[in-house]
């Protein structure tokens, strides 16, 4: 498993956290997801053989957030 931390703008509440976690959990190969609203980051453990970083970013952006 690989781990990546992405900066995500626009998250401000528990609903935002739930939306991001839910979108990422639907992707095959995603393990643990941790969201820090204070730091505006999402840390994702994932299997690079099953899912690509671009797919992770797209899943977050599809929820209406900006990934830096």
TrEMBL record:
<keyword id="KW-0963">Cytoplasm</keyword>
<keyword id="KW-0186">Copper</keyword>
<keyword id="KW-0143">Chaperone</keyword>
<dbReference type="GO" id="GO:0005507">
    <property type="term" value="F:copper ion binding"/>
</dbReference>
<dbReference type="InterPro" id="IPR017969">
    <property type="entry name" value="Heavy-metal-associated_CS"/>
</dbReference>
<keyword id="KW-0479">Metal-binding</keyword>
<dbReference type="InterPro" id="IPR036163">
    <property type="entry name" value="HMA_dom_sf"/>
</dbReference>
<protein>
    <recommendedName>
        <fullName>Copper chaperone CopZ</fullName>
    </recommendedName>
</protein>
<dbReference type="GO" id="GO:0005737">
    <property type="term" value="C:cytoplasm"/>
</dbReference>
<dbReference type="InterPro" id="IPR049740">
    <property type="entry name" value="CopZ"/>
</dbReference>
<dbReference type="GO" id="GO:0006825">
    <property type="term" value="P:copper ion transport"/>
</dbReference>
<dbReference type="Pfam" id="PF00403">
    <property type="entry name" value="HMA"/>
</dbReference>
<dbReference type="InterPro" id="IPR000428">
    <property type="entry name" value="Cu-bd"/>
</dbReference>
<dbReference type="InterPro" id="IPR006121">
    <property type="entry name" value="HMA_dom"/>
</dbReference>
<feature type="domain" description="HMA">
    <location>
        <begin position="2"/>
        <end position="68"/>
    </location>
</feature>
<dbReference type="InterPro" id="IPR006122">
    <property type="entry name" value="HMA_Cu_ion-bd"/>
</dbReference>
